Amino acid sequence: MSVDLATVKRVAKLARIAVSEDEANRMVGELNGILGFVEQLSEVNVEGVEAMTSVTPMAMKKRADAVTDGNKAADIVANAPVTDHNFFLVPKVVE
Questions:
Q1: What radius of gyration, in Å, describes the C-alpha atoms of the chain?
Q2: Which cysteine pairs make disulfide bonds?
Q3: Which of these CATH numbers, 1.10.1760, 1.10.20, 1.10.1660, 1.10.150, describes 5-42?
Q4: Which of 18, 36, 58, 65 has most Cβ atoms within 10 angstroms of its Cβ?
């Protein structure tokens, strides 16, 4: 895939970025260079290579996936003007 001047101008317009003619011409070369590098990366054989999250092997820290109320209901509603059994009471807004 290659980028031409019209594509650069269209993307700049969609992104609402003011780009002069000189800048647009320079960006054509830069974007084509980036896309060329990405195409080179797609040629690399990565079959059998395990995905990495870091350059050093480490286990991800995980917490237990448990649903709790946080045991802080009283603290949460402490500053509310009106509550009932740890629920906020608000005025009725729909008839």
A1: 28
A2: none
A3: 1.10.20
A4: 36
Predicted pLDDT at 17: 95
pTM of the model as a whole: 0.50
Q: What angle do CA 57, 58, 62 make, to 5 degrees?
A: 155
At 87, list the tokens. Answer: 């629920």
Q: Rounded to a whole number, what is the distance in angstroms from the first to the last CA of the chain?
A: 59
Q: Which residues touch 88 (CB under 8 Å, ≥6 apart)? A: 77, 80, 82
Residue with tokens 């002069």: 20
Q: What is the pLDDT along the chain (95 residues), one digit of tens a residue?
A: 789 999 999 999 999 999 999 999 999 999 999 999 999 988 889 898 888 877 887 787 888 888 877 788 889 899 999 999 989 999 888 87
Contact between 80 and 88 (Cβ < 8 Å): yes
Task: Locate 65 and state its tokens.
Answer: 């996936």
